[in-house]
Write a structure and sequence with these properties.
By secondary structure, the chain is α+β, with helices and mostly antiparallel strands. The chain has a single domain, classed as Phosphatase 2c, domain 1, CATH 3.60.40.10. The chain has 7 helices and 12 strands. The strands form 2 sheets. Strands 2, 3, 4, 5, 6, 9 and 12 form a 7-stranded antiparallel beta sheet that branches. A hairpin with a 4-residue loop joins strand 2 and strand 3. Helix 1 packs antiparallel against helix 2 and helix 6 packs antiparallel against helix 7.
Amino acid sequence: MAAPPLRVAARGLTDVGQRRDHNEDALLIDVDLGLFVVADGMGGHAGGATASRLAVETIRDELRKARAEDPALFGSGAEGEDNPLPDILGHAVETACAVIFDAAQADPDLAGMGTTVTAVLVDGHSAFVAHVGDSRAYLLRGGHIYQVTQDHSLVAEQLRVGAISAEEAKHSRFKNIITRSVGFEQEVLVDLMGLELEAGDAVVVCCDGLSNLVEDQEVLGMVDEAGVDAVEGLVDLANERGGDDNITVAVVRFSAPESASEEGAAAAEHIA
């Protein structure tokens, strides 16, 4: 018999920042579905915002369709390769890629648009992550923070092969160049990861507008102190440090069902 699912509390916030006149990020918080998505669009005023919105809406719709067709897929408690949800989540991101690409082909004003996607699907005691681009997912556990995703960016690749130092990476003029995105081409390779969750864990999903300006240890400290309510403080801190890009972050906390506290209001669904 599967263990009772962990209790989930979540909040998210997206902000235009200090330097941009429009927000090309999109955020999805759907506690009922267990789905949390950050998408950072690119491709101009109309294109970037359209790409990120299409991404979160398509991923949500694909997951809802899968659950409606076979509710037993969710909450099965299956482990590892026996759980079908990672493949379903990955397929949802691939579908979003095709939808965005087709929209760009149909409208010259949207040509070349694309978006990052970092999507987390929570099911019982497991979380599955689908990732493309340089938005990030972190796991916070026991006073430590771990970056779950790997940035698909030019600077990250230079850092991985030792061509530049971590300090040089922070200030590189190429740090906004990503090597993989959703929708720029018709198909995309999606990174898929699985996490076994424990009571007390938190998952943070954010765009580079936050991670470029707020250190990992600062994220850890603020979430440990404020829980899901840390989203405001994290966005404020990025803005205080220049807010040179749109800023989007979601915080998801997990607690044991029998001792869960009312940590923060979690909307059934929120898209921004």
